[in-house]
Each structure stands twice: as C-alpha cells, then as structure tokens.
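Demo today. Your pick:
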Amino acid sequence: MGLILLLFFLKPAIANSQDESTDIIEKILDMISRDPSDNQDYSNIAERLNFYKKNPIDLNAATSEQLKELVFLSPIQIKEILDHRVKSGFFIDVLELQSIGSLDSESASLLLNFVRVGLPSQLQDLTVKKLLQKAEHDLILRVGQVLEGQAGFTVSTNAEEANYQGSALRVLTRYRYNYSNTLAASINMEKDAGEQFFNKIYKRGFDFYSGNISFRGSGLLKKIVVGDYALQFGQGLAMWSGSGFGKGAGISTIAKQDFGLKPYSSVNESMFLRGASGTFNYRKISFTPFMSRKKIDASLTEQGEEVSSLNISGLHRTKSEIENKERLSSTIYGANIQFNSKNLNIGLTTYQTQFSLPFSIGKSLYEQYDFRGSSLTNMGIHYDYNFKNTYFFGETAHSLTSGYALINGIMSSLSPRVSLVLLHRQYAKNYHSFFNQSVAEASNAVNESGFYSALALKFDSKWDLFTYSDFFRFPWLKFRVDGPSSGYEILAQMNYRMNKKLKLSGRFKQQVREENPEDFNLGSGLETVDKQNYRFEISYSINDRFSLRNRAEIVRYQKGSAKYELGFLNYQDIIYKPLSSKLSGNMRFGIFDTESFNSRIYAYENDVLYSYSVPAYQGRGIRFYVNGRYTLVRGFDIWLRYSLTSYYGQQTVGSGDDLINGNKRSDLRLQIRYQF
C-alpha cells in the first residue's frame, strides 16, 4: 500500500502506451484470448479496433463483416443488431443498442466506442487530388533493444565470429494508407534482433517485407487484395490464415466468424498468402478465387532433397537460420463459393498446395501420420444458420487421400441473462492442412476429439459469471506422449462491478492432461499433469486522471505423484490518462516467485501502439516497466517504453545465445508515429 501511495503522489513523467482506446482494446483482447502463452499476434486486431475507434462504423450502413471485425460480438448479437435496423428502421441514436435483448451491458458499452449514427462515407467523384489530400496516412518507426550484452552477439575464444550475424537492434517501419475505408495500402518492414541490416553482405535492408493494396466495394466486386493477404472461411478447418482464437473468457470467439478475404497487416512472417485474391458478389452468391506463391523457411534432410520441418519463427540470426531461409517454394490456388441469405450461409472451399520439395517421413512413431509428399488438396464445407435466438454452425473438411475433420456447435441466447454454447469436434490423426486454426486443445486441429460447453450468466447489472468445460481425447501419440491420452479443461470467472469506478474479478482455471513420466520407458504408462490457476483482479478509477489495477495469481503444478510446484505473481498497475493532455501513461511493478518453468505465469503488458508484450514470469524477482506517450503536435506522437526484470539469487539470465551474465534483463523501446 505504501508503494501505491508513493507512486500516486509522485508527479508522473510517463505516458500511455496506446492512444485513447488502450484500456478498451486490452479488455477486449483479454476477453477473447484463452492463454497469453498461445503467442497469438494481436497487432492486426488492435490496428483494426483502433481504426474503428477513430472511424466509427455507421450503424445505418454497417455490414455483418464490419461488425465481425470487432471480434467481441457474438453471431447472435450481430444478427439482432442488423435485424433491429430492418424491423425498426434506421438508428436515430446509438443508445438504441440498449433495446437489443442479446446485447448485455458490457458488450453494449464496448460497442459504443466503435459505432456512430450518420451518413455512410462513399467513394464518389474519385480524383487523384482526393486520393492524396482526403486520405489518411499513418507512418510508424519503432526501434528497441535489450540493453545487456547477450551471448549470441559476443565472439567466444574458440569462434571466429559471433553466432548472431547482425546487431542487437530491433527495427520496424510500417505505413498505412486509407481512403474512406474503401481504398487502402499497407507496408511492413522489420528487422529482428540479431538479423543483418544494410551491410555489404546483406544489401536487401530489412529482413522481412510485407505489403498490399486493397479495395472494398459494394457492387459486383466486393473486395480485392494484391500482395499479402489472409483468408478466413468457415470454422477454420480447411482454410484460416492470420490470427485465430478459440477458448477464451467469453462466448464470442468459440464460433469463428469468418471474414473471408482481408489484407494482411501483421509482422508474423508465416501465416499469410502472397499473390492476389478477390471476392465477387452476385445476388446471394459470393465467389472468392485466390492464388499465392511465396518462399518458406525450411530445414532439409542431410541429402537436401526433402523437407524435414518448416521454420515459422521468422528469425534469421545465425548461419543455420539464414541457410534455411526461403529454401522451399509454395504455390497455392483455389476458391471459395458461398450462398448467403438472411439466416443461412453455406460455403465450399477447395484449394491445392504444391511445394518445390517433398516432405520426408518423420523418424519418431508419433510422426507416422504426418503429411508427406509435395502436393496437398483440401476441401471444406461450412455452414451457419440463425433460428430465433439460436445459432448453429459447423464445418466438415477433408485432405484428399488422407483424413477428415469435423466440428459442429450451437450457441443460444436462452434469455437476456443466460447464454449457452455446446460444441463437438472430431479430427482424424491423418488430417492435414497447413492453414488450420479451428478450436482445439492442441496447436492445430488433428488427432483430437472433444466436447466443449460454456454458460454465461448475467445475474444483474453488477454480477456476471462465465464458465466452460472442455473434455478432449487424443487417439494417437503426440510429442512427449507415447500413447493415446485424454484430459479436460475447466474455467470459471466471476465479475462484480460495484459502480463505474470499481470492478472486481476472480478466475479459476484447471488443465488436466497426460504425458510421459520423466523416467519414461516403453510400456510404463502415462502420468497425469494437473495445472491450476487462481486469479484475483481489482480495477479502480480514482478520478478522471488516475486509475489502478492490481492482480494476484497463483499457479499450482503437479505431475504424477511428484511434489506439487507453486508459482505466484502480484503486480500493481498505475494508469495516468488526463483528458485533452499531451502527456499520458502507465507503469507496473510486479513481484513473482515460481519454483520452475512448469509453474511460470504469463501476463499481458502495455506496450507501444500496435505492440504487445506477454512475458513469462519465471524464477524469483521483480519486474518493472513504464510507458510514455507525448504528443508534440497534432498527428505527431512519441512513445517510450522501458522494462526491467531483476532476479534473486541468479548469476545468469536466459540460455544459449540469449544468455546474459548477471541477474538483470532490461529493454528499451522508442516509437514515433506521424499521421497526416
């Protein structure tokens, strides 16, 4: 408490890591994500939410696709918003949203930040002058670096050069062009720490380049993207590139809401297509052909004639990582066709993926059903159907010459206070798809069957409860699991809003699964791994400038009959965000104590705009960070972020090429944004 009072009375020289929508976007991401350790890239979602925060969606012209992009709305809520416009006429005021039965107070409160009532913007009388003067331009330059020396950048006594071929500096440049949310362009250029950058050997400059030009229309040509793009169809079994979510602390993400074709704006270097695609509409039929050709990072067998594994990290720091860069070419072509009516949507997706080299047969027993060869054809049929307050959805997919995968679910608003979700999935051990992000306990939808159920209860304006259970089974072997296995996951979260200033939240989560014992011998059986998380959080707004957030979390991990391990994290956030001020900010001070890697705890951290940090709190120590945002003039902002982790009783931090001699690791990040 003393620390809180001290920080409260200090005049802060800090600034908010995001713009005005920081807290809103962080709340949405926390609600839709299952676990920060999933390493999802949230930058493209944050970018889109920030766009609609600045350019609200007109409720009288909103499409289902636009409302889906807000990600926190369920299919039932979207349908009722659009139905309200049909039955009651155009919206006169955004407060009419309160009359929509399925839209609870929290969803309605979030939605008010992204919608308006007014005349829709249109692409009329288009001229070159308008394209240059009336458009929005957004340019960002970001640099950052770990301040301590790391082993990968140091020349050892028995080596001629350091393992990392480039400098420790991280550099990102990104540019966005948008005209009336109709014509857009995007460019990303990134260099990771350790990668080369504009030297005599590496003349291409940045290690990663990505860009596209896109158009949204309302006639026959609905969308077109040239360059890097993502495709999201059905429930993610056959084709889903870019970000994807599944089990989270809410019901809105369990039924995937496909966006179809969208420009790719993330810096993730693997989950996208490169080429061209368009969506064409004729009455109730939409048709999306696509073509992609790009090079992929891959490790080859000793003979160099087959692929042993794909490298999806996007890192090219060492000689081996550079050698594996773009060693494999992929060509993808196919199409999606959909029938879209008011209540029923049915779609068919089919495409073929061809590689320049075949995939080899894995050496381990659990890899015997993995993809092999150089060509793969995928097909998927998906549907969704609205009946009153109930939403049915599902998809059946087949990788030709191998296995099937299917998923079916139901989402129902039983009353304005009660919502229910039921979902069944069945994924064969030999089902193959390189763009597979359906709901699954494993990293992708293969070798798994399961049943998920969730219940959302709104007791009154102050109390609400969300809970889910998921029982799953893996019929075939997995990595570190040499036998068929099973498990379950349960979550319960209770929220209490005393008033507009104070909110309390408690969460319990348990994951139970089976793994090989530490001294595994063939035939010795599997051991049960039980991991439990207990979390309590309180958020409080002191006034229109200061707000506080405190979280305490405990992890209990036990494998087999071994002694259980505990992990503990407690942090205090202080957020300073005065109205109409050039200066705003937040800071965190955290204490953690975990017995091992198994009891580590992940937590979101505020970062510079469109960047998210999700470190693992592991070991014993303290962590501190401060974010700063200052607006020099309108449209020109500077962010500064400094973080420090200090470990107790450690002589080194990290391992391998990331090893630091000492017990501290600090990071500095600077970002400049210019909007014009």
User: Anything to note?
Assistant: The longest helix spans residues 75-88. The chain has a mean pLDDT of 88. DSSP finds eight helices and 33 strands in the chain. The two ends are 44 Å apart (CA to CA).
